[in-house]
C-alpha cells in the first residue's frame, strides 16, 4: 500500500496512532482509524476492509524508477491492527475501465477518488510461490491463503464507513482528536471486544440484536456508558436517543427496538417494523402473532385482548337482559293474577280447580275460600306441579266454623283415631278432601294400612366415650303408634340424647330398642322418620313449595312419578294451610317474609313431604306466641290422629297444649321419672304427696316437680329427683299393664319384609339427588343476583387495579442477562416482576374468592345436616354444590382476568392465563370450603380471607423460592397453590425469551422451572381437588371440630 512512512505518518513511535491518549495498538481494530496516512484513493468496503488503489505488483519495473506505466488494481486488506506493509496481501480487484498509469499518476488522485471503480466480480489473491495473482471464484473465495479478515472483504464501498474514515483522516491531519473514528462515545473510554472473528463467523450477531456496523473487521465491542445511559441501564432500560436504541460506540451491538424485529437471517443488519396482527417486544427476532380478534396495529409492542372484552360484555348483557326478561315475565304473571282477583275470581290452586270442574259453581268456591294467595315474590321453578293430578281428590277450603287443614282431623271420632286407611277414608270419619288426599298419598308411600311406628325400649343406656357417667341409664318404656308423645325434663335431663338414640343418630351402649316390635339398627329407619329441629332450618332463597318439593323428590319412593310427588306436596301445603303463601319466599330470620308460625309449618312440611311414619320435633313451640304455638300443637295432634307417631321435646307447655298430649316421658338425670299417659300423670304424682292447685297450669306443675322444684306442691317429704326416679323404678311394672300399650312384641315376618322393602325403595338414586341439589343450588344463586353482581364488580375492580399497576411496564415483565458474550451489554436484570405479578394475582384472587367460597357451604350446613340425617346423600349434595359454584367461579375469573391482561399486556397467552387463574380460583374456593367446615359461620369469611392471603404470600416471589430452598422448607411453599401459579407465570413470561436472555440462569436465581406448564396446571387442579376432599370429610367431622 502506498503510504508515507517518513513524512506522512500520524505517529512516529512505532506503536501506532494514539486515540484519546491511548495507543491504538492495545485497542480492538477500528476500521475508521487509519494506521498511516492514506496517499492514494482509499475507501472502506461493507466488511470494514481498507481498500486502496495500487499499481500491479506483478508488472516488472524495467527502469526501476517507478515511471513505468502499469495497470491500476485495488487491494482490500482486513486486518489493520499492525503496521501496513508493502506486501501484496488481501484481496485484489481489477478496475472496471482497465486504467493504467505510473505511481506518480496514482499519487495525484485524491484519497476519496472514485475515478476508476473496482470490478468486484473478479477477486484475486497474490500467490507468494508463483509471484502472480490467482483468481478467486465463489467456491474458493475463502482460500486458506487468506486470513479470516481478508477473506471477508467484498470490495463494495460502504459510504457510511468511508465517510467516517475520511473524517477521521482529516481530523488527524489537522492535529485534532479523531472524533469520527472514536470507538466509544464516552471520552477516554476504552472498548472491550466481546466476540472474536471465529465466533463471529460461526454465530454472527446474537439473535434479537442489531449489529449494523459489526463485521469480521469491526467486531462487536462493549463501551462504558455515559452517565445518562448508565442510569437507564440501572433502570432496566436501554439507552435511547430520539426514541431509538443506541449503543455506546459505533461497534456496540444494540438490542432490537420495541415495535420492530431483527430477522436472524439478516445477521442483525436489518430491522423491520412489526406488521399488523403481530407485536414485537424489545429484542424481538420474529414477530409474535396476536390472538385472533386482538388489536395489534403496525409497530405494536403488545397486544390488546379485545375478544375477551367482547365476550365479557356479551356475557354481562345476556345476564342483565335475561334477568330483566324473567322479572318482566314475573310481573306479567302477577298482573294476570291481580286482574283475576279484580274480576271476583280468586287465584285457585289445582285442588280448587278440580272442585270447580267437578260441578261446583265458582261462587261456591269463593264463599268457602278462606285464604288469598299473595303476589309472587319470585318465579316458580315447578309450574307444572300446579296442574298435577292429586290422587283423584278435590279440595274445598274449610268453612269458618270448622277446623281447617290438618286440624280438621281433630273432628275424627275418638274410636276411629289411628284406624286403618280404609276406615279413615270412609264417610264416617268425616275427613275433608285435602286430608283424604294426604292420607291416600301417605298410604301409597308407606305401602301400609297403618303408617305409624311404635317404639319400645328396655334398660336403654348411653354413655359417651371417655365419660365417667352415662347420660341415659336404664330407660324403659314405649311410644305407641299414632300418639302425640312429649319428652319433658329439665336442663341436662337427657331429653335430646334420648330422642337422638331413638332416631338412630346416636348408638346406645346398653339395653335394647324395637321398632314395630322388631329389633334392629335404628339408623336404617331414618328414611321413614322425620326430624324437625328447634330452629326453622329452611332455605330462605326458595319458596314454600320449592322447599317441600325438594325434600319430597329426594326422600319419597324412587318409583314415584313427578306428578305424584307434586300432588303429595300440594296436599301437604293445603293441609298445613300454606296455600296462600306457597309461592312466597321463605326468607331468613333477619329478613323475614313469612311469620314465625308459617316458618315452623314449612319446617314441619319438609318432613311431611317425605311421608314419614314417625316425626320427632325439638321444641316446636319455641319462639312462637301462644296462639301460633297452640295452632302448631293442634296440627301435630291431628297428625297423630291420622296414625303418624309424633314425638316432641317440649318445655313448660301451656295448659291447652298439655291437654293435647297423649303420652308423657319425663326424665331427670338421664333416668325415667314417669312414662305413660298424660291423663295418668296427675294421679301418679298425687300418690307421691304432690298437690295440684285448682286452675293451675298442670304442665308448669309437672315441670317444677321433675326439676326438683316441687316444694310448693308438697310441704313435707323428699321431693328430690333421685327420690322420684326411685319411686318410678319401684312402681314401673304396673305402668305397663294397659291393654293399649305397644302391640305385639314380635312382628310377623310378612310385616317385617314389607318394612324392609319399603326402606329399600325410599329415596332418589344418587344421580337424581345430585341433579336435584344442583338445580336447587343454581336457583339459590339466581335468587341472590345482587350478591352475584357485587362479587363480579369486586373481581373486575381487582383486575383493573392490578392491571393498572402493571400497565407502565408495557408487558415487559422480565429482563435478564443477555446470552453468551453479550452479557456484558446487559441492563439491570428484572427477575422479580414475573413472580410478583403471580403474587398479586394470588392475593387478589384470595380477596375476591375467599368470602364467596365460604358461602357455598357455611350458610346451609345446618340444613345439610338435617337432610343428611334424613337420608340425603352427602356425596350428591357436596358434588352438586361444588358444581353449581363452577359457573360463578368462571364468571368471576373472566371479570378478573380480562381487565388484568388487557392493562398489564403480559406476553402470557390469554387462554393459559385464564386457565391458570381459574384453577387458582378453584383452589381458593376449595380452601374456603375447608374453612367453612371447621370455623364458625360468623368467623369463616375473615378466616378464609386471611388464610388465602397467607397461601398467596407463599408463592415464592418474596422471599424468593431459591432462598427458601436454602432454608430447607421448600416443601411448605410447594404445599401452597400460590407457588405453582407463580412458577407457571414465570415460565410463560420468561421462557419465550430464551433466544435473547440466559433464562436458565434466571430460573436458577428465582428457583422456578421454566417448561412445566402442564405439571403446574395439573398440580393446581390436584390441590383444589384435595381441598374439596378435605371439605367433604369435614361434612362428617366438621360439627365436632368446628371452632
UniProtKB/TrEMBL annotation:
GO terms for cellular component: membrane. Residues 1-31 are annotated as: Disordered. SMART domains: AAA (SM00382). InterPro entries: AAA+_ATPase, ABC2_TM, ABC_transporter-like_ATP-bd, ABC_transporter-like_CS, ABCG_dom, ABCG_transporters, P-loop_NTPase. SUPFAM superfamilies: P-loop containing nucleoside triphosphate hydrolases (SSF52540). Its main location: membrane. CDD domains: ABCG_EPDR. One of its GO terms (molecular function) is ATP hydrolysis activity. Coiled coil: none annotated. The chain crosses the membrane at residues 304-326, 784-805, 837-857, 900-928, 940-958, 1017-1037. Residues 455-694 form the ABC transporter domain. It is a multi-pass membrane protein. Residues 18-31 have a biased composition (Polar residues). This is ABC transporter domain-containing protein.
Amino acid at each position: 500500500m502506498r503510504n508515507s512512512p517518513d513524512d506522512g505518518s500520524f505517529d512516529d513511535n512505532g506503536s501506532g496512532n494514539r486515540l484519546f491518549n491511548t495507543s491504538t495498538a492495545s485497542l480492538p481494530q477500528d476500521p475508521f482509524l487509519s494506521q498511516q496516512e492514506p496517499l492514494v484513493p482509499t475507501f472502506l468496503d461493507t466488511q470494514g476492509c481498507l481498500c486502496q488503489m495500487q499499481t500491479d505488483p506483478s508488472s516488472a519495473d524495467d527502469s526501476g524508477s517507478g515511471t513505468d506505466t502499469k495497470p491500476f488494481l485495488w487491494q482490500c486488506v482486513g486486518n489493520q491492527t499492525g503496521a501496513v506493509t508493502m506486501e501484496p496481501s488481501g484481496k485484489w480487484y481489477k478496475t472496471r475501465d482497465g486504467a493504467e498509469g505510473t505511481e506518480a499518476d496514482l499519487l495525484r488522485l485524491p484519497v476519496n477518488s472514485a475515478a476508476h471503480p473496482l470490478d468486484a466480480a473478479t477477486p484475486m489473491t497474490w500467490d507468494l510461490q508463483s509471484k502472480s495473482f490467482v483468481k478467486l471464484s465463489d467456491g474458493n473465495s475463502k482460500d486458506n491463503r487468506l486470513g479470516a479478515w481478508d477473506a471477508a472483504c467484498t470490495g463494495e464501498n460502504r459510504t457510511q464507513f468511508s465517510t467516517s474514515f475520511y473524517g477521521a483522516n482529516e481530523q488527524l491531519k489537522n492535529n485534532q482528536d479523531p472524533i469520527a473514528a472514536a470507538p466509544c462515545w464516552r471520552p477516554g473510554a476504552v472498548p472491550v471486544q466481546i466476540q472474536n472473528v471465529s465466533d463471529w463467523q460461526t454465530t454472527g450477531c446474537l439473535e434479537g440484536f442489531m449489529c449494523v456496523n459489526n463485521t469480521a473487521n469491526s467486531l462487536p465491542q462493549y463501551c462504558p456508558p455515559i452517565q445518562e445511559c448508565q442510569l437507564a441501564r440501572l433502570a432496566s432500560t436501554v439507552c435511547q436517543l430520539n426514541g431509538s436504541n443506541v449503543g455506546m460506540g459505533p461497534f456496540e451491538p444494540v438490542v432490537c427496538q420495541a415495535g420492530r424485529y431483527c430477522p436472524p437471517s439478516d445477521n442483525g443488519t436489518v430491522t423491520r417494523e412489526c406488521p399488523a396482527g403481530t407485536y414485537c417486544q424489545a429484542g424481538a427476532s420474529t414477530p409474535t402473532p396476536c390472538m385472533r380478534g386482538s388489536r395489534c396495529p403496525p409497530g405494536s409492542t403488545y397486544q390488546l385482548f379485545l375478544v375477551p372484552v367482547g365476550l365479557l360484555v356479551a356475557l354481562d348483557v345476556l345476564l342483565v337482559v335475561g334477568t330483566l326478561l324473567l322479572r318482566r315475565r314475573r310481573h306479567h304473571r302477577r298482573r294476570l293474577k291481580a286482574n283475576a282477583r279484580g274480576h271476583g275470581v280468586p287465584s285457585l290452586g289445582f285442588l280448587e280447580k278440580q272442585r270447580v270442574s267437578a260441578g261446583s259453581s265458582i261462587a261456591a268456591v269463593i264463599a268457602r275460600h278462606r285464604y288469598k294467595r299473595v303476589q309472587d315474590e319470585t318465579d316458580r321453578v315447578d309450574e307444572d306441579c300446579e296442574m298435577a293430578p292429586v290422587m283423584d281428590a278435590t279440595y274445598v277450603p274449610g268453612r269458618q266454623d270448622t277446623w281447617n287443614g290438618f286440624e280438621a282431623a281433630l273432628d275424627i271420632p275418638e274410636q276411629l283415631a289411628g284406624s286403618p286407611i280404609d276406615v279413615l277414608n270412609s264417610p264416617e270419619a268425616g275427613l275433608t278432601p285435602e286430608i283424604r288426599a294426604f292420607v291416600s298419598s301417605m298410604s301409597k308411600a308407606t305401602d301400609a294400612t297403618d303408617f305409624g311406628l311404635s317404639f319400645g325400649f328396655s334398660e336403654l343406656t348411653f354413655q359417651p366415650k371417655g365419660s365417667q357417667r352415662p347420660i341415659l341409664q336404664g330407660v324403659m318404656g314405649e311410644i305407641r303408634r299414632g300418639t302425640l308423645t312429649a319428652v319433658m325434663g329439665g336442663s341436662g335431663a337427657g331429653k335430646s340424647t334420648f330422642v337422638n338414640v331413638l332416631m338412630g343418630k346416636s348408638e346406645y351402649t346398653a339395653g335394647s330398642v324395637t321398632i314395630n316390635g322388631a329389633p334392629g339398627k335404628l339408623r336404617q329407619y331414618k328414611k321413614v322418620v322425620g326430624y324437625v329441629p328447634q330452629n326453622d332450618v329452611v332455605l330462605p332463597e326458595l319458596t314454600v313449595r320449592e322447599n317441600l318439593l325438594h325434600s319430597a323428590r329426594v326422600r319419597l319412593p324412587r318409583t314415584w312419578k313427578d306428578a305424584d310427588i307434586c300432588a303429595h306436596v300440594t296436599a301437604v301445603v293445603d293441609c298445613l294451610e300454606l296455600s296462600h303463601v306457597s309461592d312466597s319466599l321463605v326468607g331468613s330470620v333477619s329478613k323475614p317474609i313469612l311469620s314465625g308460625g308459617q316458618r315452623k309449618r314449612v319446617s314441619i312440611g319438609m318432613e311431611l313431604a317425605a311421608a314419614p311414619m314417625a316425626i320427632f320435633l325439638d321444641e316446636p313451640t319455641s319462639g312462637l306466641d301462644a296462639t301460633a304455638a297452640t295452632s302448631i300443637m293442634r296440627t301435630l295432634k291431628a297428625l297423630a290422629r291420622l296414625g303418624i307417631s309424633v314425638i316432641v321435646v317440649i318445655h313448660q307447655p301451656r295448659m291447652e297444649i298439655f291437654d293435647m298430649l297423649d303420652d308423657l316421658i319425663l326424665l331427670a338425670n338421664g333416668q325415667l321419672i314417669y312414662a305413660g299417659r298424660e291423663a295418668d300423670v296427675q294421679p301418679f304424682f298425687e300418690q307421691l304427696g304432690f298437690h295440684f292447685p285448682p286452675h293451675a297450669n298442670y304442665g308448669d306443675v309437672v315441670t317444677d316437680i321433675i326439676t326438683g322444684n316441687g316444694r310448693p306442691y308438697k310441704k313435707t317429704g323428699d321431693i328430690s329427683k333421685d327420690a322420684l326416679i326411685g319411686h318410678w323404678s319401684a312402681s314401673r311394672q304396673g305402668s305397663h299393664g294397659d291393654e293399649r300399650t305397644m302391640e305385639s312384641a314380635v312382628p310377623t315376618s310378612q310385616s317385617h319384609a314389607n318394612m324392609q322393602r319399603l326402606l329399600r325403595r325410599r329415596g332418589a338414586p344418587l344421580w337424581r339427588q345430585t341433579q336435584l341439589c344442583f338445580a336447587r343450588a343454581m336457583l339459590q344463586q339466581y335468587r341472590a343476583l345482587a350478591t352475584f353482581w357485587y362479587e363480579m364488580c369486586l373481581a373486575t375492580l381487582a383486575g383493573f387495579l392490578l392491571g393498572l399497576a402493571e400497565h407502565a411496564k408495557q408487558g415487559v415483565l422480565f429482563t435478564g442477562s443477555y446470552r453468551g458474550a453479550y452479557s456484558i451489554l446487559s441492563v439491570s436484570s428484572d427477575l422479580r416482576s414475573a413472580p410478583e405479578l403471580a403474587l398479586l394475582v394470588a392475593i387478589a384472587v384470595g380477596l375476591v374468592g375467599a368470602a364467596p367460597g365460604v358461602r357455598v357451604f357455611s350458610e346451609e350446613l345446618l340444613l345439610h345436616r338435617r337432610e343428611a340425617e334424613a337420608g340425603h346423600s352427602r356425596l350428591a349434595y357436596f358434588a352438586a354444590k361444588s358444581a353449581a359454584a363452577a359457573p360463578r367461579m368462571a364468571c368471576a375469573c373472566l371479570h378478573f382476568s380480562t381487565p388484568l391482561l388487557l392493562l398489564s399486556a403480559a406476553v402470557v397467552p390469554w387462554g393459559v392465563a385464564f386457565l391458570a387463574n381459574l384453577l387458582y380460583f378453584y383452589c381458593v374456593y376449595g380452601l374456603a370450603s375447608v374453612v367453612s367446615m371447621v370455623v364458625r359461620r360468623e368467623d369463616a369469611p375473615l378466616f378464609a380471607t386471611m388464610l388465602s392471603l397467607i397461601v398467596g404470600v407463599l408463592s415464592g416471589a418474596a422471599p424468593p423460592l431459591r432462598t427458601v430452598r436454602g432454608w430447607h422448607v421448600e416443601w411448605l411453599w410447594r404445599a401452597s397453590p400460590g407457588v405453582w401459579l407463580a412458577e407457571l407465570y414465570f415460565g410463560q413470561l420468561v421462557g419465550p425469551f430464551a433466544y435473547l436472555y440466559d433464562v436458565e440462569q434466571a430460573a436458577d436465581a428465582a428457583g422456578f422451572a421454566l417448561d412445566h406448564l402442564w405439571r403446574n396446571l395439573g398440580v393446581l387442579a390436584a390441590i383444589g381437588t384435595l381441598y374439596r376432599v378435605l371439605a367433604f370429610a369435614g361434612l362428617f367431622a366438621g360439627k365436632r371440630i368446628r371452632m
